[in-house]
Amino acid sequence: MPSPTLFHEEREMRTWFPPHGDITQKGYEKKRGKLLAPYIPQIQDCLSDLEARTDRIRMRTDVICIAEQKSS
């Protein structure tokens, strides 16, 4: 006998791909939003960390450039 998970997956596939025609753009965007929503905070945290690292690298580069200009 198939597992309950299999029935759940089949039901999910039916919502993704209706039997009569393609999924609409609006339906796709709605489903995509629901699937990605749990990951949005993680992505935003990663972007914040990346921006902070980029700022630190820029500051170091500016210090090196100023030091090189003074020594010339």
Describe the structure.
The protein is mainly alpha-helical and 72 residues long. 79% of the residues lie in helices and 0% in strands. It has one domain (4-71). The protein has helices spanning 4-16, 25-36, 40-71. The longest helix has 32 residues, at 40-71. The chain is rod-shaped and about 70 Å long. The model has no long low-confidence stretch (mean pLDDT 76).
Brief account:
With 72 residues, the protein is mainly alpha-helical. The protein has one domain. Helix content is 79%, strand content 0%.
How much is the average pLDDT? 76
| Helical run tally | 3
Radius of gyration: 25 Å
Spans of at least 5 consecutive residues with low confidence: none
Helix fraction, binned, reads over 70%
What is the number of domains?
1
The oligomerization state is single chain
Helix and strand succession?
HHH
Q: Tally the beta strands.
A: 0
Largest sheet: none
| Percent of residues in beta strands | under 5%
N-C termini distance: 80 Å
The coarse silhouette is rod-shaped
Domain DMAP1-binding: 20-45
InterPro entries: DMAP1-bd (IPR010506)
Pfam families: DMAP_binding
Protein name: DMAP1-binding domain-containing protein
